[in-house]
Amino acid sequence: MAISILPVRRNLKFNLNPAKALTWHQDGLNVSQFLNTMSLFFPVGERFFIDSVRNYREQITDAELKKAVTAFIGQEAMHGREHEEYNDFVAQGGVPLHAQEALVAKLLKAAQQYSPKSFQLAATVALEHLTAILGGGLLDLPEIMDGADEGYKAIWNWHALEETEHKAVAFDVYRTVIGDDSNLGAYALRSGTLVLATGVFFALFIPFYLHNVRIKGGLTDLKGWRAVAKHTWGKKGIFRNITRPWFDWFKPGFHPWDHDNRDKLEQFEALLGDVLKQAA
Ligand SMILES: [Fe+2]
Ligand SMILES: [Fe+2]
């Protein structure tokens, strides 16, 4: 496995329309709130990722990996900044996103205080697997974003592209400082942590999401729920399409670039053309 991609930190601004925050997806509130609820996890979650990797930065001697770590930190910081603005717009629409965010922040702080640094890095690597397959899924299934508001579509595509671009960075740090799969303890830790991280994520996400739909009157919107079902577990649904890649994690010797979707990175221009022009 010799694919080496050096991520690039891009300082992009997305001119999101605050008035569209709750209904930016063409299928309406229930689908929009699904992604909006995902968005609340990013600013605090990505800060946790940055801290977890930073804990081991000094132990990395490989020059390429060092550069990749710097770019990884830069990318996650930009994601956090842009999702913070995004989350503010959703909150202005009357959704208690900030209270939910505070709860996630508390949980992550407790993890930082009470768990070993190796566990924090393993959790980061596991959650990066989730963001990599979710991002990869979004790029594989562009129809999910068909007809969406351009700004919101651009921020999600950008995030999906950069999660793809840096998907192996935390993983390579983990292999270097904790161990690769020839070390049974390192393998067991990264495997167990994915199960735990996925469980904890959905245990938070599902009640938050249902609350955020209910509070805006979408709970009985059958058409809205049908659209959510289509985009999650339907034939072209994201969860159905990432189930196998999720399980691939447990193959001994797995590496994120075993899912070779480098070709998607060539779509940067095509997916973000207008945003890139504005930033230039
Ligand atoms: Fe990110
Ligand atoms: Fe990431």
From TrEMBL:
InterPro entries given for it?
UCP07580 (IPR016516)
Q: Name one Pfam family in it.
A: Metal_hydrol
Asked whether the UniProt record includes Transmembrane among its keywords, one would answer yes
Q: Membrane-crossing residues?
A: 187-210
| Entry keywords, A to Z | Membrane, Transmembrane, Transmembrane helix
What is the recorded name of this protein?
A: Metal-dependent hydrolase
Species whose genome carries this gene: Alcanivorax hongdengensis A-11-3
